[in-house]
Design brief:
Strand order of the largest sheet: 3-2-1-4-5-6-7
Oligomer: single chain
Shape: globular
Number of domains: 1
Helix content: 25-40%
CATH architecture: 3-Layer(aba) Sandwich
Number of strands: 7
Distance between the termini: 34 Å
Structural class: alpha/beta
Radius of gyration: 18 Å
Order of helices and strands: EHEHEHEHEHEHE
Low-confidence stretches: none
Strand content: 5-15%
CATH class: Alpha Beta
Length: 263
């Protein structure tokens, strides 16, 4: 069976770098007509857009988005649609934005209220409300579309840090709402990556990803980190016509991480 993208014009929040940029590239390679890269960092967006436009003939746009500004969600969606013009309907969303704050030993017992709010406002509150508002936009405009949230394998860890708590909650929200939104023509799933070396995780730089040289990653069966492009391929699968058969699923992509699951 040939796997085809279900949506064709896709907004990628967090698309300026890392996993989000890899997903945007894979979407274009998989047949997306339009991709809108969105984040708070305009400099990263401009560079990412330039790189993608050099490699693909499809249309690539950029949009400044602060996912913590919940009141601005509908305006953001309207701006995204306006970038596409009348010939394309915005019908896909990937949210790959997030912030991490560990707080070291005892984690949540050693952070300020401001740091807690910073993580939760982005990773949980911001993601939930944008997901909700986009799903409502699709339904109200009679558009069948897909939403994919990039969560984390931290959703399965002990909920000590605000990051782990936020990822656990958003994964469970996707699992619950995905079962119902598909009845409205909206397919909602999520990916839970294991450790991936990005700017967000500089301490992982010394470990190999199977292409880059480095030490073996000891906590995975494959003995390496997962690469952003591998997360991107799974995301595109969930954004395909087969994604609806997995509505509400959270797919772990972690190379057999051993500290989470019993042997």
């Amino acid at each position: 069976m040939e796997i085809k993208l279900r949506p064709k014009s896709i907004l990628v929040i967090g698309g300026g770098s890392g996993i989000g940029l890899a997903i945007a590239k894979e979407l274009l390679q998989s047949g997306a007509k339009d991709v809108i890269l969105a984040s708070r960092n305009l400099d990263k967006l401009k560079e990412a857009s330039r790189c993608l436009k050099c490699g693909f003939g499809q249309r690539v746009f950029t949009l400044s988005v602060d996912i913590t500004n919940v009141q601005g969600n509908m305006e953001t969606i309207k701006k995204a649609q306006a970038l596409l013009g009348d010939k394309s309907k915005l019908d896909g969303l990937v949210i790959s934005s997030g912030v991490n704050f560990d707080a070291s030993n005892w984690k949540g017992f050693n952070l300020s209220e401001a740091d807690w709010d910073r993580v939760m406002d982005t990773n949980l509150k911001g993601v939930f409300f944008f997901m909700r508002d986009f799903a409502n936009y699709l339904y109200e405009n009679k558009i069948k579309g897909n939403i994919c949230i990039i969560s984390s394998i931290s959703a399965h860890r002990d909920m000590l840090s605000p990051y782990q708590i936020s990822k656990h909650c958003i994964s469970r929200i996707v699992n619950a709402y995905g079962k119902h939104l598909c009845e409205r023509g909206v397919v909602l799933n999520c990916v839970e990556p294991g450790p991936v070396y990005t700017e967000m995780m500089p301490h992982l730089k010394k470990y190999t990803d199977g292409v880059r040289e480095g030490e073996p990653w000891p906590d995975a069966s494959i003995k390496r980190l997962v690469r952003p492009e591998e997360i991107a391929k799974v995301t595109c699968f969930l954004m395909s016509q087969l994604g609806e058969t997995m509505s509400g699923d959270c797919v772990v992509v972690a190379g057999g991480t051993k500290s989470i699951f019993p042997t």
